[in-house]
Structure formats: C-alpha cells, structure tokens
Structure prediction request, 157 residues.
Amino acid sequence: MMMWTRKKKITISVIIAIVVILVGGYLFGTHRVASAVPGHVYQYTSVNGNNKLYMAFSKNTDQVVVTADKDKALKANANDRDFQTIYNGESKNGTWQYLAKGSHLTLSKSQSGKNSRWQYNRVLVLGKKMYAGSFTYQIANAGQGIDRKNTTFEQLR
Prediction:
C-alpha cells in the first residue's frame, strides 16, 4: 500500500482540478455556437487574410445577410424589418441560411437553383470571437474539399 504525503495529495488534487476545468471549459466553449450566433453581426476574415465579409445572423429565422459592406450588415442587425429589407435586397446575389448546432456552424447559399455550403468544424466560442479549426466546403460548379486552416469570426454587435 502506497503512502502519500499531504503535499503529494494536494499536488495531485490541483492537477486533477485544472484538467477538469480545462476540459469542461473546452466542452462549454465548443457547444456555444447555437447561442452565440443568432442576432449578432460577425466579421469573417478569409483564411489568406485579404478579404473580409460581414454576416448578420437573424435571431428569429435561419437567414443570414452576407455582405462585404459592414454598414449594411450592422443596419440589418438593427431590427427585424431592416433585416428583411436588406436580406431581400441581397437575394439577387443568392439567399443565405445558417445552422448553428453543437460545435458546427454551417452556411449555405442558394443561387439560380444551385446550392453551395461551408461547414465550420470544432468551433470554439471565446468572448466575442469564434475560432474554427477547419471547414469543409461544397461549392456549386467549383468542387468540394476541406481546408484545415484556422478561421476566426469576430463579433461586432
């Protein structure tokens, strides 16, 4: 039978507590997408860092306004009427929907009867930022694949 000193017991207890906190925090952070996205505007920076898009997520539907115009995205977030007006105005470029579930954020675009989809995997929500470890894509007339680069979404409102 092994005898542990008081110091050794405390050290092991602290290590176990830290592991439990880290694992619990990670699980909590990776399952907050569904509550972090609706009703907010996020800035998305492309994986190569040279393009920015703004996404205004509806709080009541699965619709999302995706635009390069920051002011338009912020205005869409003001109220439901402004959101629908801007969403309908942007629909000439296709309509966007989203699904936020578990640790995944999926964006889909329908245009001219063709669908494209981007699924951000292992999304971790920390404060006003979301980090995705990778994303898969299926783009109409362009192919499909997986990109293993980290992606960041920053909440503007």
Q: What stands out?
A: The radius of gyration is 20 Å. The chain has a mean pLDDT of 86.
